[in-house]
Amino acid sequence: MSKDLMFKDEIQALVRDAYEKLDEPNGPGLRCYEKSQLAGIPTVAGHWSLGVGNPVRHARLAPGDAVVDLGCGGGLDVLLAARNVGPSGRVVGVDLLDSMLERGRRAASEAGLTQIDFLRSEMESVPLPDHSVDSVISNGSFNLSARKSRVMAEAFRLLKPGGRLCVSDLTISEDELPPEILTHPSAWAG
Question: 3-class SS at 65?
């Protein structure tokens, strides 16, 4: 068994509980975006921006592309990706939490973006065909998984040959922290 398979259910519960308890976080992730990118973005998407970077800026998305956002949260990067791929493209936001998916759907509807779908799924097992997307993006979500190697394998399974992976995330060396920090709920969901 791979080390990253340990405690999957417990870690998912910690992450779910932490995110469900958030009360309108006022977009801490917005600091990573240019004002021009955020023009016209619905308030709900901005308020629920919890990411740590700006993967859309670096993903080289083109009109007509198919894109998956793993751990899409409130949908900010989904909306930005949809703008880049245009009406001939397709963007799928994947998240484990129904509340986040509902926020994303509401934001997409407010923005009038119809080339977006949202799926409730674990990042480690997305119900989409092999080699079906041009780009996989993710913003501050891979670190929430207990099975990071599985998330990476799933991203590559989804990508077409020559596809692009653009991830913004946090990393730490587990060897440098004591167990009481590594097992604390905020270490997984904060």
Answer: coil
**C-alpha triplet 63, 155, 2: angle, nearest 5°:** 170
Residue 103 contacts by C-beta under 8 Å, 6 or more apart in sequence? Answer: 44, 45, 48, 73, 74, 75
Handedness of CA 139, 111, 94, 133 (dihedral sign): negative
Distance, CA of 56 to CA of 53 (rounded, Å): 9
Does the predicted model carry a pTM greater than 0.70?
A: yes
Q: Exposed, middle or buried, 98 (CB in 10 Å: 0-12/13-18/19+)?
A: exposed
Which residues are CB-contacts of 93 (< 8 A; sequence separation ≥ 6)?
Answer: 68, 69, 72, 75, 78, 101, 104, 116, 117, 118, 119
Where would I find the beta strands (DSSP E) of the chain? Answer: 66-70, 90-95, 116-120, 133-139, 159-168
Number of alpha carbons in the 13 Å side-chain half-sphere of residue 151: 27
Q: In terms of Cα–Cα distance, which of 115, 14, 123, 39 is closest to 73?
A: 123
Taking the CA atoms of 85, 106, 141 and 13 in sequence, report the sign of the dihedral they define.
Answer: negative
Is residue 190 helix, strand or coil? coil
pLDDT per position as a tens digit, 92-127: 999 999 999 999 999 999 999 999 999 999 999 999
